[in-house]
Fold these 2 entries.
Entry 1:
Amino acid sequence: MNPSSTFRIAVLPGDGIGVEVMQPCIDVLEAAMRRVGNVALDYEWLEAGANTYRETGNALPKATFDACAKADAILLGAMGMPHIRYPDGTEIAPQLDLRFDLGLYAGVRPIRTIPGVPSLLASPRAEAIDFVIIRESTEGLFASRGKGVVTDDREARDTMVITRPVCERLFDFSFRLAEDRRGSGSGKGRVTCVDKANVFASFAFFRKIFDERAARFPDLAADHVYIDAMALSLVLKPWEFDVMVTENMFGDILSDLGAGLIGGMGYAPSADIGDEHAVFQPCHGSAPDIAGEGKANPTAMFQSAAMMLDWLGERHAAPSARAAARLITDAIDAAFADGRLRTCEFGGDADTAAVTRAILAAIDNDTARVAAGGRA
Ligand SMILES: NC(=O)c1ccc[n+]([C@@H]2O[C@H](COP(=O)([O-])OP(=O)(O)OC[C@H]3O[C@@H](n4cnc5c(N)ncnc54)[C@H](O)[C@@H]3O)[C@@H](O)[C@H]2O)c1
């Protein structure tokens, strides 16, 4: 068969468990696309990361960046190793360079309870956790990366940057996502701005632009919560939120908190989306504490790959790609549904290979959906 939609994917496994979850992810993508038909991916495996820096002196070689810029989408494992650092003491993080250099302003981090995966929250309402953090990903406090100043070993300064054009695109993206989620039945039609506008001029500006853009979406609820109050609310009543949008550093922190609510980093996918490019990667890092043991939970990597297929399908009007994305998401839910698949976050013995096998089996078993999803 000659697939009608073929997309070029730049594959950056990176470091540590990023490498370990990438091939299983390709296996899952291929299995889903085989069942759906009419869509194919053409992979280009590329070098980048802390180990690449150690070997070559360059964490993101130009050839890798150029291939990423030409690809239809970028699939990334994880990058960075705590013991490999630049001379200024900061870590190698080419995933941040990609966000800045490709203008990937919207960091999309869905936080959803997978039925069958336990939550550490005692309330049964934890089963209804389903919200999305939009982390601005090109400015905020991270604009200071590589520009921080230490004076005479006495004082250090990093500067936060908030700009109107990025905020406008970011907030419009967030409101449109809330519309889509409400349309698909998963959202509440609510967007929450998370800031510290009570203290900082930059956040008062952020909030002012949020309110301006909210006025363009009168059918959606728009509200504000300070970051410290949001840290509390995400533990006490996370099921009340829908879409929340925040600055880069706050989003970095809140998304790990969110991952903790639904079982850990292995269940938290992400997409970094701009107007022309997008990177899809799990929220987790290279996890040096478990790297090499084969026990990393690959679910977030698979969920991120499903987000990639969905984004490609929407952008290129390729319904088969979106059907393959749904198939992967449904297979993940099916694999965990009976509560027996226990990953290492819970002290279980379901390692990378076991989780992958279970999800591949669920993809193969999902004949009903394939029939409905439309093999040509
Ligand atoms: N986007 C990225 O590539 C990214 C994100 C965060 C951290 N990092 C880098 O990764 C390195 C390690 O950072 P860290 O330890 O702070 O964060 P981490 O996400 O790598 O690990 C945090 C904890 O979560 C666990 N964990 C993470 N992913 C898991 C998975 N898939 N399955 C089971 N357990 C998992 C780890 O074992 C660890 O206990 C650092 O060098 C850091 O800079 C990279």
Entry 2:
Amino acid sequence: MSLPSEFINELTKRFTGDVRLDPASRILYSTDASIYQIKPTGVVIPKTQDDLHAAVELAAKYAIPILPRGAGTSLAGQAIGNSLILDCSRWLDDIIEIDPDSHTATVEPGVVLADLNAAAAKFGLTFGPDPASAERATMGGVIANNATGAHSILYGMSADHLLEADVVLSDGSLDRWGVISDQFSVNSDQLAAGSRRSAILSAVKDIRENYAEAIRRDYPKTWRNSAGYRLNYLLPFSQTRPSRWEGNYPNIHPSSLSLHPLLAGSEGTLAVIRRMKVNLVPKPKHTILGVLAYRSIAEACDDAPRLLEFGPSAIELIPRMILELARSIPAYARQMGWVVGDPSTGLRASPSALLVVEFSGDQPSALREAVRKIGDVLVVAESDEEQNRVWNIRKMGLGILDSSPRAARPVAFIEDCVVPVERLGEYVREVERIMAAHGTEGGIYAHASAGCLHIRPILDLRKGEGVRALRTISEQVFALVTRSGGAMSSEHGDGIARGEYIERTYGREATDAMRLLKRAADPHNILNPGKLFDAPPMDSHLRSGDGYQAKVWKSALYFDHERGLAGAIEQCNGQGVCRKMTGVMCPSFQATREEGLSTRGRANLLRELSKAGMENGELANSIFSTLDLCLACKGCTSECPSGVDMPRLKYEFMNQYYKTHRRRLRDYLFGYFHVAARWLSPIAPLANIFMTMNWSRRLIARVLGIAEERTLPLFAGKARVRGYTGRQVDRYAGRQVYRGEVIFLSDVFSHYIEPEVEEAAIQILRALGYEVKVISCVGAGASLLSKGFIEAARDHAEKVLGEIQALDGGAGLSVVGCEPPEVYCLKHEYRALLPGRRAEVEAIAKRTWLVEEFVLRAANLDEYIHQPNNTKGSITFQPHCHQRAEAPAADGLPSGTNATVEALRLCGYEVDVVDAGCCGMAGTFGFEAEHYDLSMQVGELKLFPLLKGLDSESAKTPSAFGASPKFDRNTAEFGGGWVGVVSTGAACRMQIRHGTGVEARHPLILVRDALSGTVP
Ligand SMILES: Cc1cc2nc3c(=O)[nH]c(=O)nc-3n(C[C@H](O)[C@H](O)[C@H](O)COP(=O)(O)OP(=O)(O)OC[C@H]3O[C@@H](n4cnc5c(N)ncnc54)[C@H](O)[C@@H]3O)c2cc1C
Ligand code: SF4
Ligand code: SF4
């Protein structure tokens, strides 16, 4: 359906936000975190409350179906449709008020739950329901899905915490849904007006008077129910209650009538929420976790009722499948230390399932006592850090399950069933039997305390067999759940996956009551049509579906996915972790909050291209635009739970795109900067004058498209380290121990621009007793790859490998370097460049290190440190993003960021790793004129404010270490106390200087300076 031009014209006149009707925008909003895909008719992004109102009013006038949307993390397909999307997440994100006295918050629908919780935490409060997606889920979506989470036995559902909502009704009128009567009946004045509101009140009255019996009789026996509408809250009525809930349940006075709970779980089908007032609960003062190990998932579930007797605040199931997959994802593997059992017993060393049992309260001693009683606990997590590690693995369970590169994947459709907790073990055994009968298994995890397990059977939905299994498993599980007194949807909603089960769940009469409400609220069916009622079959509108064929080009890079490039593109399952505002992933989204600039947005467009083919020029151009703004920071490679590697996809796409498009001159300069630097370095004084004089600097910037605001890096002239005219051996200087030889990989910045870094690296290696052999090619080819010059990068890689072979002579020497992108390019990207030399590449990758990583493995660094026991001061450290993304090493010793931290720590420094993501420079990205603003926006997100605050902070705080509390920017001198900022990336150091005026140094210089005696 296309949108009428009159509607668009009128909307554009009244709207201050964005109206986007282009194909790329429609693709971006055609998926959520479900298995479905439906293209919307268009997307509007309201900037103000008036915009939102105008959009609904005009939609009512022209009978245009609309779909209010938040982060689009729904799992059942309710956030997509053939409707006009109203994206409330971008601008409508005001936390209007937090009232600590009444324990309430008033927020706009686009407020991210984690942000609300962070603001409420200042008053010791939090929003009770805690969906695992809180770091990106918006309050509009949380309420409209009736979301809840691990603590549902304590806090119930979102319906129990919504106090009032301002809404736009389907006719465009504004209304407030709250407690509208404290009498049992609706007052006749309220019915008289003939408005949409009066129609709704009339329906509500009718339901309460004529359908109460059906509701009491036919509603599922469980309180944890998100299917259909919350008509039971109108009575109010619930057969069961959350086991730790205090007071009446639902918490509605029996003689009052409350409209607002109807919005919970309504999936945008009753009204558009523009503002809401929610209840906040006191944050527990203390929590403790006890982890129990079990031989099977069913056995763990059997134990849940016993554990509930101890009064825990949560019991969560984590199966072995998730633990094993988590170990393979860098960001999670780092947090897995707690899953170390006692190897003396098989079960503890390798459990099939874990139950994480949480207790909360005011007295730590009482909590410890409670944990002690529950049984033979594998781990007790008491500190925040220990507990976060456990929760992070649990919360990422769903994504982690989907991380292996294969065509058959865990599919969400029976992932939200709930049964009475006493029947959970029996239920699991039955579902396992059903899955086995279909020749598959599934990931099973989550809320054991509430009888809700997220079960995702592994199916290949590109094949008829997989699609058929989707239907039959769903039917069989529905029958099982109904027999068990449960419900198909207990927090994730109905959407497309479960819409068709509503009538079968509730029976005809209660469903009629729901339809009555829907008709009254939305007689023209413009609010998210096809959801809850008249939903399409659950096996229709699949993203892939039987016969799905990707038309990808023959890739220049090797993708070690089951289906190569297509498999790598399809790895994204849309969970939207890349929409979070913490960590590294995804800086371009964090800075702009644009769906199209998230990793998911990029993957969605690429997936569409893989169906349409590169011949679709318009789509290819849209993808170019979004990939052009990908900083290739590698945040996604470590933080995306599905392991999407967008930088590699970017290199591949750019390589293909530029076969038919002209490159900018600048790309050659940046991609081949190692070559340009080799030519310019000998004439450094002349080149530097040219690069610093105003007119010539501007000329260079204009001709090449470089940001005029940037200072160009200057050449140092001669490399300080001796002998770079070819393959050279830097002779061991002869200290205490001769440790052997090491191969050094130089890079363009440390070699031609900041040679003191390279010099420090080599001096450290020599001081530790190494003979340093230097590879004559500069860099591993990272800059070529980053610009999509894949063939040139491959040639360069061949040369580097050739040199390594020659220098190594079969000895298996380690290869070390100081610039993270170059070192990690050799370590990780050569597999994609040279699949034919896989064994050799893998062997070299295993012994390729940053200098800091290497020295921690090669020698006892602390033995070489001058005055090892003296604290030399504290340091603020901004790691290069690629270093942050580095996985834990197989040998268990520090790698990536941790290696630099440890090396500095051994040298006597206290290291404060900046809690910020990407600096925004990302190699040459920030130099490019059209990227400058985004680059600075990324820096301003966290890094710049933090660094700008450092001077005054340290000036205010008397130094713990005496000497020199303040870093002198003019002299860039370090002293004791707070000694300054270090950063491992050359580009990061430039960006820090440009954005904050702070002179950051390379940590290796500090390490070198800390070595005792004269360094060679
Ligand atoms: C990895 C993962 C883990 C998850 N874990 C949980 C969990 O533990 N518990 C849980 O309950 N859910 C969970 N979810 C599901 C989902 O994240 C939550 O339900 C979340 O609250 C949805 O928020 P959203 O902003 O993404 O909403 P969206 O997906 O954008 O929208 C959800 C529904 O709300 C409607 N809506 C949005 N805004 C408005 C508005 N202003 N007015 C009216 N209707 C509106 C939409 O039309 C849609 O029907 C998980 C999802 C993922 C991918
Ligand atoms: S890119 Fe990763 S984090 Fe983002 S939606 Fe896709 S799978 Fe999730
Ligand atoms: S590489 Fe960085 S900018 Fe690009 S998609 Fe991944 S997280 Fe986002």
